[in-house]
Amino acid sequence: MKVGPSPLWMRARLLMAGVRPISNVVDVTNYVLMELGHPLHAFDLGKLSGQKIVVRRARKGEALETLDGVDRELDEEVLVIADAEKPIAIAGVMGGANSEVSEETRDVLLESAYFDPVLVRRGSKKLGMSTEASRRFERGMDVEATVRALDRAAGLISELAGGKVAPGVLDVRVSPPRKVVVSFRPEQTRRLLGVDIPDGEMVRIFRSLQFEVQEKDGRLEVWVPSFRVDVCREVDLVEEVARICGYDSIPERKEGVAPLEVPRKPEHLLVARTREVLTGLGLYEVITPSMVDPEIAQGGIRVTNAPHKGVSAMRTSLIPGLLEVAGRNFRRRAEEVRVFEIGRVFPELDGEEVHIGGLLAGRRRKGWLEDGRPVDFYDIKGLLEAYLDEATHGAEVHFRPTSSFPFAAGEASEVLLEGRPVGACGRISDDLCRRFELRGNVYGFELSLMSLLPLWKREPEFRPLARYPEVVRDLAFVLEEGVPWEEVQDAVLKADPLVESVRLFDLYRGAPIPEGHKSFAFSVSLRAPDRTLSDEEANEACSNIVRVLKERFGARLRGK
Fold this sequence. Notes:
Phenylalanyl-tRNA Synthetase, Chain B, domain 1, Phenylalanyl-tRNA Synthetase, Chain B, domain 3, 560 residues, four-stranded antiparallel β-sheet, 25% strand, elongated, alpha+beta, BirA Bifunctional Protein, domain 2
C-alpha cells in the first residue's frame, strides 16, 4: 500500500464535517467515524515490537508522546494499547507518535474496539485530554459495530491506498455482549402520555425502530438493539413511543389544581433574606469558582483531575474570588466595587461549609453631603452591623482584634454574636491585593452561615415602648491603649440594671493623656420601666459604672 493524500471527494466531506485531512489512511479512519459513529485507529505495523498489540493498564513510570506532540506521564488509572514492549496509544483517546502512520508506512494494523466508558473517561480526565473518540466512548458505543466499522475501513483503504487486505479478523472478546431486554406496559404508557395509543401501534413503532418485540403475560418484552445504548428502562421506551407519535398529538389539558405551598428550610430562608438585605445595602451578588490557585487556598484540598494547575485546589475562603471580581471591575475603570457571595468553602476533606463573603473597594459614591471618599474599616463594620441586626433579630454584636488570613495584621476584627465567633472583617492584606492588581485599601468580611442560623430561627422579642423618660449622662475615662471599646461597652451595659444603652462619641489620644493610654467619652442612657429616675438613682448607677471600669480595666475618670 502507499500512503498519500486522500481524493478530493473525501477531503471535501471531511472538511465539511470539521475534520482536517491528513493522509488517505488516517482520513479513512476519520471518515468511518463520521459515517458509522465508531472510532478506529491505524498503527504502522512495522513500528510495533513483536508484531502484536495488547490492551492493558499503564504501569507507573511509563510515558507516551501522543499524536498532538505532548509527552504524557501514565499510571495505573490509564488504559493503554501496547505492543510487546511499550504503550503505543491511550485506549479510546489518542494514538502515540511512536506508531504513527507516515509516508514510509507499508503495512497497517487497523484497531476497532469497545472500551469501558468509565475507564476511558478516567484516563481522559487524568491526562486532561478530550477527543472526538473519547467523547463517543464515554457516552457508550455499539459493541456490535466494531467488526462492521473495521470491514468498511479496510475496504476504503484498499481502494484508496492500494495494497491487499489480509484475510480474517482477530476478534478478542472478554465476554459476549449482553442483550438488553426491557419489560414494557402499554397501559402505563397510555397513563403517562394521556393518549389512547393501541397496543398494535406501539408494537409497530418498536419494530420500525429495529426493536424486537414479544408479548408475555399482558406485557411486551422488548429486545433493544446494540446501537441504542441510550435505551435501558421502560420510561425510555415510553419516550420512543411519544417521539414517533409526535408530541404535538398529545392534547393540552388544564387541571384545576390549586398551587401547593412548599415548606422551605430555615437555612434557605436565611439565604434569601441575606440576599435581600445585602442588595438593599447596595451590594451586588456574584458567583465565583470553587476551585482556585493552590497558592491562595491556605491548605485547601488539592484536586487530582483539575482543569489546569492554576485552579487545582478547593477554596477555603470566598475572599480571593471576590478580589478577582474587584480586579476585573477596576481594570474596566470602575470607581467602586461593592459585592457579596453566598457559597461553599472546603476547609476539610470530608466537610464543607456555607459562607457569606463581602468586599468593599474604591471610593464611595458622591453625594450632596460629601465628596466621594475612599472606603474604610467603618464602612465594612457598619455594613456588617446593619446586616446582622436584620439576620439575627437584633442579637448582640461585638468586634475584637484578630490576625488571620486574608486580612492585614492589626487591621482586622473577629465578629462575635452573643459571645460566639461567627467570622471576621477587616482590610485585605497588601500582598493579596497586589496579586489581583488592586490599589488602595480593600475591605472585606466573611461569616459562617450556619453560625447565624440558631439566631435567625429564634423568635423576635417584643419590647414595649418606654413610658418614662431616659436620663443621659456623659462620662469620659482614661484607659490603657490595649483595651478595646467592645469590652468597655459590655462592662458598662452590665454594671447596673438601669443602663439601657451606651454610645461612644469620642476617642482621644495626646496631651494631657499619658503615653500608652487613651480616652473614651461616651453617653449612657439610664431608664426604669416603672418610674421616672431621680438624680440620686442616676448618680448611683454612674458610680457603679465607675467602680466596675476601675476594677476591670484600671480606668479612671478623666480630669481626676
